[in-house]
Structures are given as C-alpha cells and as structure tokens.
Design goal:
With about 500 residues, the chain is an alpha/beta fold. It has 2 domains: about 15-20 and about 410-500, Immunoglobulin-like (Sandwich); about 25-405, TIM Barrel. The protein has helices at about 45-50, 60-70, 115-125, 155-165, 170-175, 210-230, 245-250, 285-310, 340-355, 390-400; strands at about 15-20, 25, 35, 50, 55, 70-75, 100, 105, 125-130, 185-190, 195-200, 200-205, 235-240, 255-265, 315-325, 360, 365-370, 375, 390, 405-410, 410, 415-425, 425-435, 440-445, 450-460, 480, 485-490, 495-500. The protein has an 8-stranded parallel beta sheet with strand order 3-6-9-10-13-14-15-16. It has a 7-stranded antiparallel beta sheet with strand order 2-20-22-23-28-25-26, with helices on one face. It starts with 16 loop residues before the first strand and ends with a strand.
C-alpha cells in the first residue's frame, strides 16, 4: 500500500494517554439516534421491516434492532413534507395509502403512529416526531393531483400532539390505546430551507418554499399551537442554511433546539472522487485518506451552527446525517467496507467533542434493503437472509452501549489515535479509533491519583477493505477481551470501546 499521512511509520513506539476524571459537561444519549422514513421504490425501508401478514414488526429485524438499541428514533424525513398523520391511524383496513411523491411508489400507511410507538417500546427508544409544517411552504403540495391538499397546518400538528399525549384524547382511546404515548420531542418541519431537484428535460435546482421570515412565522404558529396542548414538549425548529439566527430570534423560548442535516463527504461535489462506485478498490491509499478526512466537513457544519446559536443558548439537533457519495442512491460500495466503519467512528467522536451543545445526532438512515447508508440492511428475499448491521450500525451500537454520562478531558500523543472519554460513577469509557490502516497503537493509561482496578475492551478489528454482506452478517461484530489496566494495544484500523473501572 502506498504510504500516506495516515500510515507512515510512527517516529516513536509508545505514546501516553492522559485521562482526567473531571466532569466537563453531560453527554446526551441521543448522539446515536436513528431516523426512519418510508422511501418507496428507492428503498422499501419501513415496508421491508413490517410483517404484513402477521401485522407486526419482523421478529428477526426486531432482535437485531434490540441489539443495536438506538436511544432515539425519528419518524420523519422527506415524506413529512406532505404527511397527514390521520391517514395512518385506526383500523388498518380503513387507512388511506400515501403516494410517495419524493421517492416514487406507494406507502400503505399500515405503519403509522401506533406501530411506530410499538417499535420504540420494543427497542426502549425515545420517539421523535416530525410534523408537516405547511409542507415547507411549497405550492407543489397544495394540489399535486386533483382533489388533494397535502399541506400541513398548526391545528393538524396540535391535534397530533393531543392524540399522542393527552390522557383523555377520544380518538386514540377509540383506536385502543388508553394510555398516552407521552412523546416529548417534536420537530417542526423537515429541511425547510432546502430546495429540490426537478426534471424538465434537464435537472435543475428549484427553491419553491418559505423564506426564512415566512418559516419563522409558521414555526411560531406551530409551536404555540403544540405547546397549548402540552407545555412540556421539547420543540425543534429548522435552522440550516444560515436560518438559525432569525429562527432563534423570532421564536424565543418557544423553541428548545435548532435542527440541521449534514450529508458529509470530503469530495461531495467531485463526481470523479475515488470513493464512488468500485474505484476505491483500485486506489485504497487514496480512499483511506479521503475517508479519514470526511469528518472535517461534518465538524465544520457543527461549528457553524454552534456559532449561530450560541448567543441564544439553543442546543442543536442533527436529525439526519450520513455519507453522501456521488454514486446514486446506493451511496457507494465503499460504505460496506470496514474502512467506512473507521471513518464513521471518527465522526461519532466529533459528536462527543461537541456534546455540550449537540443534543441529538445521527450518522445513518435506520434500516432498508438497498441504501448503503443504512445502519441495518434488510436483504431480500427475507426468508433466505438475515438482517445485518452495516459498518456504521456496528460502530454506533458499540459506542452507544459503552458510554458514560459525562464528558471528561483526555489527551494523547499518539498521532493515529482518535479518542474521546466519558465517565459514569467510578467507570471511565474510552472511544478509541486507530486511523492507521497498517500500524497498531500502544496506549499506556495514566490517571492522576487514581488506580485502575479492571479494564475491558470491546473491539471491532478487521482488514479495512473487508466488506459486509448477507452471507457473513457477523463480520463486524465487536469482541470483548480483558486488557492490561496499565496499557492497551489497538490493532491497525481498529475501533474500540474501553471500560476502565477505578478503585473507589
């Protein structure tokens, strides 16, 4: 392999890892959330996980999702721009199917509010609902075909809050749910500042929606109506594309968090990037360097939003995020590789470093049967193959399951080691990424005035260019091993969650 800045021989064999067990700020568990949306013909996603005969979530899918254990799931995405929630509640034989205007095809609406909440219950996940905010102001949704109006209203959103959270809501009780769902997190609108692509002989970018001022006014109407039903909501407003300051200014204390999305790739505008298609296999050294740099775009986006929202004291919610490789909707073969898993792990460390302001974040779509940005792949035919974790799902599950409640400082002189640290009681958790594809890293632990009683590591170590597939679904599962409380060696391209138990 060609030598790169990430695989040069280290100048010294040993480095020091200095851990300071002093709480910096609380870490949100929602830095590892997932989001689900019906994606029609592009990727059947929700449909692929639902058993239409048994009217339940597929048991093998549920078992894997329970292992992944996402702390939060968002019901939202592009379809939220024209979604009428009433079409997907009540008796299933009376539900109105939804034409998927973004991704083509039909969505049966057999999975709606009750079914989504059942999935959250099965997985122990916090739900996050995204409401249709006047369809982002786009006139397209006023009457996309005769006799329809897909625009959302503040009243519709408020009634959905009542359906979910009002203990006495008659419609929910009529549908068999006596107890309220008590959903705390609600996002008002989805990608409200974004335009869309329109095909008229040539593909062109179209902005047909709210201005920032119009969006602020609409957000105000929605927030007031929703809080009138439940004052305890944590409301999320859209603030990407430079909208955050005005949205914060106009909505004030009615809004708790500012949402943005980040589809990251260091070469996202370069159609000839080495990460596209199968070309990464021809130039693995270049592909590795590009993957290791991908987090710079992500971190720049987070810092931008931090600066915009800091004067208003708002926390951030990155409610969608994944690699955006210019390779069609499959998003690139490279995302099946363990090299991508290492890149994703670095991105998760970026989330942790910004955890003082970042409350919600994700690196993947949730599940589906085609897109490689999914955390979970549901291969077809379902009777022949089991669902499996993609590399991004593997590292998200690894870090989520082994993480403390408070961020603590950590420094390391090893140039290949990307490390964050957290703490919970007398336990310290280290999330370690080895950014070299060739060399292991040796990390002697040092904690001033404290003694490590026990040390364990959960590792994912593989050849960077190994790829996950349906025939080897366990390929990138973590393995636990006891380690020396004084020092830890992580192999090349390894990702680990290390737990150190301190003497009282």
């Amino acid at each position: 392999m060609k030598k790169t800045g990430f695989n040069r021989k280290p100048e010294k064999e040993h480095a020091m890892l200095e851990i300071i067990p002093e709480k910096q700020f609380p870490l949100s568990p929602y830095l590892y959330m997932q989001f689900a949306e019906p994606l029609g013909n592009a990727d059947s996603s929700v449909d692929a996980a639902w058993d239409y005969v048994g009217c339940r979530w597929q048991p093998d899918t549920v078992a894997l999702l329970q292992y992944l254990a996402p702390p939060m799931i968002r019901w939202g995405g592009c379809f939220a721009s024209y979604y009428h929630w009433r079409d997907a509640v009540g008796p299933r034989d009376k539900r109105k199917p939804m034409l998927n205007l973004c991704w083509d095809g039909m969505f049966s609406n057999q999975v709606g509010t009750a079914e989504f909440m059942e999935l959250c219950r099965l997985l122990g996940s916090e739900p996050l609902m995204c409401v249709n905010m006047e369809s982002d102001g786009r006139s397209t949704w006023a009457e996309p075909f005769p006799g329809t109006d897909l625009r959302g209203t503040a009243q519709e959103a408020a009634e959905w809050v009542a359906y979910c959270n009002d203990p006495s809501d008659p419609l929910r009780r009529k549908h068999g749910a006596e107890a309220p769902y008590r959903i705390r997190y609600w996002q008002i609108g989805n990608e409200t500042s974004y335009g869309y692509w329109e095909a008229n002989g040539k593909r062109k970018f179209v902005r047909d929606g709210f201005s920032c001022s119009e969006a602020a006014e609409a957000t105000l109407r929605f927030a007031r109506a929703m809080r009138n039903i439940d004052p305890e909501l944590r409301l999320i407003a859209w603030g990407d594309d430079g909208w955050a300051p005005e949205i914060c200014e106009r909505t004030g204390e009615l809004i708790d968090l500012i949402a943005f999305h980040c589809h990251f790739n260091c070469n996202r505008n370069n159609s000839g990037a080495i990460l596209t298609s199968r070309y990464y296999r021809q130039e693995p050294a270049q592909a590795w360097e590009q993957l290791m740099r991908a987090g710079t775009f992500l971190e720049a986006k987070i810092k931008e939003l931090e600066e915009q929202t800091r004067p208003y004291g708002k926390r951030l919610a990155m409610t969608e995020g994944h690699f955006c490789i210019d390779d069609g909707r499959d998003r690139g073969d490279v995302l099946c590789s363990w090299a991508a898993g290492v890149a994703y792990a670095r991105n998760l460390n970026i989330f942790a470093r910004h955890g003082e302001r970042l409350e919600i974040a994700t690196s993947a779509d949730f599940f589906g049967n085609r897109w490689r940005v999914n955390a979970v792949m549901l291969p077809t035919p379902a009777y022949a193959f089991r669902p499996y974790l993609m590399p991004v799902g593997g590292v998200m599950g690894l870090f989520s399951r082994h993480s403390g409640k408070f961020s603590i400082p950590v420094t390391c002189t090893e140039p290949y080691a990307d490390i964050t640290a957290s703490m919970d009681g007398n336990r310290i958790f280290l999330h370690i990424v080895n950014t070299s594809p060739e060399h292991g890293v040796e990390l002697p632990f040092h904690i001033a005035s404290r003694t490590i009683r026990q040390a364990d590591a959960w590792e994912i170590c593989a050849d960077p260019w190994d790829e996950i597939n349906a025939l080897e679904p366990e390929r990138f599962r973590p393995r636990k091993r006891k380690i020396d409380p004084q020092s830890y060696r992580l192999p090349a391209a390894g990702v680990a969650a290390v737990e150190l138990i301190l003497e009282p």
